Amino acid sequence: MKTLVVVSHPKINDSQTQQFLLEGAKLQDVTWHHVEELKNIDVEKEQSLLKNHDRIIFQFPLYWYSAPSGLKHWEDEVLTRNFVYGDGDDNLGDKEFGIVVSTGMPLKDFCHGGSENVTIDEIMAPYFAIANRAKMKILPTFTIAQFQYMNESVQMQLLIDYQRYLTQTYPDNLKNRQEWFEREFADRFKDFNDINCNACETILDTFIQRKENIDQLKSTISLIKQGEDD
Amino acid sequence: MKTLVVVSHPKINDSQTQQFLLEGAKLQDVTWHHVEELKNIDVEKEQSLLKNHDRIIFQFPLYWYSAPSGLKHWEDEVLTRNFVYGDGDDNLGDKEFGIVVSTGMPLKDFCHGGSENVTIDEIMAPYFAIANRAKMKILPTFTIAQFQYMNESVQMQLLIDYQRYLTQTYPDNLKNRQEWFEREFADRFKDFNDINCNACETILDTFIQRKENIDQLKSTISLIKQGEDD
Questions:
Q1: How many CB atoms lie within 10 A of CB B176?
Q2: DSSP alpha helices (H): ranges in A56-191?
Q3: Can you tell me the distance from the alpha carbon of A195 to that of A99, in angstroms, rounded to the nearest whole number?
Q4: Mean pLDDT across the stretch B69-85?
Q5: In this structure, which of A32, A211, B99, B162 has its CB flanked by the most CB atoms within 10 Å?
Q6: Which residue of A has its CA nearest to B61?
Q7: Does the structure show a pLDDT above 70 at B98?
Q8: Flavodoxin-like fold domain: from which residue to which, for each copy (chains A, B) (predicted)?
Q9: What is the pLDDT, as a whole number, of residue A195?
């Protein structure tokens, strides 16, 4: 699976959040695509880029309840009617669509009765409408609230969650999560091949042991439930 | 009451709808403000413009379920946090906020189960969120669907409805409508002063006669209802 991250930020070098995410997105099969850097938008090239990826992510800071104008400009140029509505090879219908949005406000403000008085899902309606029109599968939005107040351990958790959002099989259930971690452990431990990495082996052994325990628990629960149904 | 129409359209001269609305907006106390024509956005000047009007209208064609990027660019520059959140003289809290949006799709498509599968109100959420943040009073959105298919009489009705949207006292009830028409008749008939305008007098007389009939009917209905309550 290949993922395209369409990033919009007018001052990306000044953004701690985006610089952090940029480091996180340095993964195999992930393409980072910053729209404000495009001098001229080559519509065909942009459409090919979309066609050549399986998961399309719009990533941006929340400016007045929407993406910066750069993303809208890109949308209005690149998303021609035929390309989005089109049938045949040109359509986006077999792809997944996700949003990574960052905000300086606390997440608790985004609810009815909260100080924003609107939910993140509600203000993302225009993007979901595009994805619906293109018959894409919509992933739950990934919201990053108040990155600047996160301590290092919360940031590390965010990094993993973000990487999973970009590359893990949807939906985000235990099975897909396990598969993702197992693959990532194996991939990343390769980098330690010239070092005697005892820690790596221990982590992997523990992970596999726990996974087997969970599988055992699951089949026990399944047996109990079967008993209940009889 | 002074109304500011903040218009966004990247090719306004080619837009039949916008040219039609431009003619309609040539009214006393209505300022037409096309954001794509601004070479550089002078934030202070734009904020003064907003402060000096009582009703703020965002007017645009629907491009991918939102305004063209020009409006977002204007928003991101002009709507500084202090200006929108601010207390004291600088706030927008005593103003009204409306949207005039045009679309080439039929209005019936904008509902759940319709081919757009989303309502106009839902996709306008980011604009309502701004208005809410600024504590402005939100007017019902004025949607123009498929202008190109309208015949002349439908267009003329649209023109009147649009002019009422820009200048009539909110809410749009019978009393405010009557007042609007009476004032507009009087104002516009002035232009006929060097012509012997019998038609004008007839129209005004008929209007006033009917208004009195309605008032009579209303007090009759009121009496009947009072009888029912006893």
A1: 14
A2: 69-78, 81-85, 120-123, 125-133, 152-167, 174-189
A3: 38
A4: 95
A5: B99
A6: A76
A7: yes
A8: 1-153
A9: 62
What is the value of ipTM here, to two decimals? 0.92
Over residues B165-202, the pLDDT tens digits come to: 999 999 999 999 999 999 988 888 777 765 667 788 88
Cα–Cα nearest to B145, from B99, B108, B112, B172: B108
What secondary structure letter does DSSP report for A63? Answer: B
Measuring CA to CA, how many Å separate A30 from each of A9, A36, B83?
Answer: 18, 19, 39
Convert the pLDDT of each residue in B102-124 to its tens digit. Answer: 999 999 999 999 999 999 999 99
Cα angle value B174/B177/B182 (rounded, 5°): 125
d(CA A228, CA A225): 5
- Give the residues of chain A that fall short of pLDDT 70: 87-90, 193-196, 230
A217 close contact with B: CB closer than 8 A: no
Whether the CB of A82 is below 8 Å from some CB of chain B: the reply is no
For residues B32 and A39, is the Cβ–Cβ distance under 8 A?
no
Would you state the pLDDT for residue B90? 61
What local confidence, expressed as pLDDT, does residue A88 receive?
59
Which of A69, A123, A126 is closest, CB to CB, to B64? A126
Is the CB of residue B123 less than 8 Å away from at least one CB of chain A?
yes
Of A69, A123, A129, the CB nearest to B118: A129
Q: And the tokens for A174?
A: 């235990």
Task: Give me the residue from A69, A70, A129 closest to B116, CB to CB.
Answer: A129
What per-residue confidence (pLDDT) applies to A189?
A: 79
CA distance B130 to chain A (A): 6
Taken in order A70, A74, A77, A81, is the CA torsion positive or negative?
negative
Cβ contacts (< 8 Å) between B72 and chain A: which residues? 63-64, 66-69, 72
Pick from B69, B118, B126: CB nearest A69: B69
**A73–B66 C-beta distance less than 8 A:** no
Residue B45 class from Cβ within 10 Å (0-12 exposed, 13-18 middle, 19+ buried)? Answer: exposed
- Quick check: B82 contacting A, CB < 8 Å? no
The whole-angstrom distance between B76's CA and the closest CA on chain A is 7
Task: Establish if A61 touches chain B: CB-CB under 8 angstroms.
Answer: no
Taking the CA of residue B123 and the nearest CA in chain A, the distance in Å comes to 5
**B229 has a pLDDT exceeding 80:** no
Q: How far apart are the first and last CA of chain B?
A: 42
Token readout for B17 is: 């709808």
Instruction: Give the C-alpha separation, B132 to A115, whole Å.
Output: 10
Across the interface, whether the CB atoms of B126 and A126 are under 8 A apart is answered: yes
d(CA A160, CA B117): 34
